[in-house]
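Exercise: predict the fold of this chain.
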Amino acid sequence: MRFISHLDLVRLFQRALRRACLPVTITKGFSPRLKMSITRALKLGVASDREEAVICLDEPVDAEKFIKLINEQLPEGVKVTGMGDN
């Protein structure tokens, strides 16, 4: 997975969130998008064991349920291991 670009990783998570039917906030602009961002963009070819993302939800979701639902939709090599309180 180290050869996947930052934009492809963002698209991968957007698709996984939609397939998991999680209540992600959608922006209110001309071109609506899921309100999420991956905090740091890694260079192509650089591997990482832990990256952080900010995903805004419309309603509270139990951390274990969120992790289970999203990991079922992610490909091998990418998985969510934890969820913060914010």
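Check your answer against the key: The chain is about 30% helix and 5% strand.
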